[in-house]
Amino acid sequence: MSDLSDEILLCILRHVPVCDLVRNVSNVCHKLHTLCRDKTLLTNVSLSEEYLADDLLVRHILKRLANHVQSLSLNGCYWLAGSTMELLARCRGVTHLDVTGCRLTSLRLSRLLSSLSLLRSLAFDVTPGFSSAQLSSEAVDSLSRLSELRQTLLTPSYGVVPCCAQLRKLMLQFDISDVTREGIGVCCQLMMGQSSVPHYQQLEEFTARLAPGEVNQTLLLLYLAVFSVHVPKRLRVFLVSIPGPNPAHWPAAPSLAQSLGQRGDLEALQLPRSWLDSLSLKRALEGNSPKHLSFSRCPALWPQVFQSLLEGGVRDATQLTSLNLSGINKVLYSECRSVEDQLVPATMSRLAAGCSNVKQLNLMHTHYHHESSPGLGGETHLCASLAKLAHLRLLTLPACALSDGLNTHQITTNHTSPSPLFLGLKKPPRLGIQNYKPDSESSLSGDSTSGLALLLAGCPFLETLEVIGPGFVSALPRLEPCTRASVEPRGMCVWARGVGDAHLAALAALTELRRLTLAGLPGVLRGTGLVQLTRQCKDLQVLSLANMGSLKTMNYSPALLDTLKQCTQLRELRLEQPYLNASASFFEALSCCSRLQRLCLISRGGAFDPSAVETFVERCRHVVMCHMFTGGTLVACRTLQKVLLDRSVPVWISQAELLEVLARSRCVAYSNRAPASSLR
């Protein structure tokens, strides 16, 4: 390696974390010691998710790199002491700073900003007790030169936004609970004086993501109050995401849409469904060439969206790279749908031809029934239309979109969907399942995958794929009950039952696949397709499986063990099944995933083997988070937590930061420095 040129070595070292450069690589030899001091390696420093970076190491890094670093990220390093955060003031050349999740009071932030006169981008948390009145004049002066700001609001406040007169990019995360831990309601009263109201004169990009709660929506409207009077002239990105079926109405949305359409430089647009009508959307898109559009849960906009994209409503549709059409159906439930309410291959084919550069497409909570929707020009399947998107890298589909019809394995020949009441009372037929054999192909011959084969042939470079059955809702959704209010009852779409092991085996053709989500697929019986899939997709890093096959018993356990043994590159695993048995054999197979960092098991009727969990954590030393929501006793859960914290966690980790007991869920939550929010 020492015979390689400095240029090649520098290219290699760019992929090495800064912690390793400073602590290990620089001590190997004189040549590497010199190269590790190269400015190209030290200008951009990220310690995010570096869970072994304690206060001593971070202080050492900051002292060595203070004169070189220009971009510094400590995102999520919540364990660092306040005294360590004050050392950031030595990095006077920093232009981009991310301290989201760190311990930063108003006074400490003031001292930090006073020393960073070159700062142009800042990301931090607005925590309870924050007061902009405690900022010094030097700190306010530094804020006045910021062009980019990201605030995570944990309490009702404008934060530092009123101080940022030159702001061009504003990103807001509203994560305020309506009720405090003491049960006291949170009041959203802000000072409405002239000095505390944001004005956004130079704003070009506005992004807001909200957690559930009335306080978050009220606070958002206060941030947007100025838009009712004046829309920034340079605004080209406006993204607002509000969970739940009934977001608060904003009267100024039509005037904003008209203003965006007049300028002709719109790049990204996402608005809640109650903010836009068809006419406003037409005005917003007319004459623009957007790159990102999201119309999630906006059924009223269904005709106008396709009219604008397909009939010249935008200037250049080929500029579009990201399109979210999740839940953009006219009606909610499949028993009320007609052919026109489903995705039509002819329309999607035109969309693929006009928006040929789309890389991300979300069609979740939509429907496609193959026998009801003949395509254009002989194309008989929706997948044939989607196959024309050759640049596609991320795709989310409803399970029924992969089915070739009702005449497949285990599907009734009745073309009409039964009523929800009948589905709830009907006793499901008993299915005889053969014994599992790892290399058996017999169970894959019953389902036709001709439609899916067309998609795989046209989009071989997919990196992220999500196939979610209609009506699937996680037992522990983050946005509950908002999530439950926006999906259909389980079992509404009969076509989704046609997706089985053969379809999973066909996905093995996606050799570039990195992230895979399979949820709500009752047609998967033995899981043999999973084994074949992971055998070919060797670089799979994130795997999420939920409610596969029968919910009364777990039929694919043997196949799951063989699957895990092949996932040697896996970083994150999420399993949700009502009767998952996390036994010794399960954790032994899971130990083959030597690079695993995050594990989440959700099984309210399941069980776990405490000693097997201990052995697994000892073997997989990269695990930073292990959450198990099972049916074990509370005593067993607490005992396991204590053992893991005492034996497996380094001594410098505070037990108070890690221990999380959820008695009602009987949850084991072990986290080696990883906050619970990282599971989102």
UniProtKB/TrEMBL annotation:
Pfam families: F-box, LRR_FBXL18. This is F-box domain-containing protein. Signal peptide: none annotated. SUPFAM superfamilies: RNI-like. Residues 1-45 form the F-box domain. It comes from Gasterosteus aculeatus aculeatus. Gene3D superfamilies: Ribonuclease Inhibitor (3.80.10.10). One of its GO terms (biological process) is SCF-dependent proteasomal ubiquitin-dependent protein catabolic process. InterPro entries: F-box_dom (IPR001810), FBXL18_LRR (IPR045627), LRR_dom_sf (IPR032675).
